[in-house]
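Exercise 3.2. Students should predict the tertiary structure of the chain below and write it as structure tokens, then compare their answer with the key that follows.

Predict this chain's 3D structure.
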Amino acid sequence: MKKYSLSNNAQKAVGLVRNRISSINGGFDGRAVLLFSGGRDSNLVASAFCQAFPKSELHLLLIDNGLLSRLDSTERQVVLLEGLFPETDIIFFTKRVSQMMRQVGMQQVESDFIEKKFSTLLICLACKLIMNFSAARYARELGIKLVIDGYADRQRNFPEQTQEFIDFVSRLYKELELIHLSPLYDFLTEKELVNQTLDDLGVYIHKQEPICMWSDSFSIAKPAEVVQYLEKTVNLIRQFDPILRC
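Answer key:
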């Protein structure tokens, strides 16, 4: 782990992660699962976590929806983090959910798009919901209570990072007796701030980050549309796995 003094921004990020996770009542035993893409935001959360809890166990969980490219860059970031934070037990695992993505997300794209009169395309909501269910299953299998992510305030206009979505998945985690946190959501406000903080932490981000074929499909959705879509999709996901049925 880096021994020199951290910048103010890095100290703030580390402090937020430490305080917010430490305040969990009976939910943090030194182990956490992080939804990890290998991108800037999840790298920053991972780095701040390792600084805040150096003797901990952090599971970096990559959910492969079958539509991702450049996944080798995620593996490079894991190796980098392992070198920067040797005191932390970093465990990397990839879970492929392409079948669920096809049946739950892809098959309803056209009907959903028509239903919304071609105003919104919410496939990324299905993808993020599948990712969170997969993280919940992974955590429950290992007896880990805490799942964290790198959701960011600067991307709050994306349907899958709105407060409505975060509240929805947090309730689902609670139903499954798990705790969900986006510990740096209100810190991740500007890309320049994220880049500078990563640099202060010694984390280099490779130019070729993972990318999804739906990455440019952004469309704004009303809060009610987000919730309605999630309620419809969550029942489809639960059909895949009894452990996720409450």
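Discussion points: The longest strand covers residues 57-64. The chain is about 45% helix and 15% strand.
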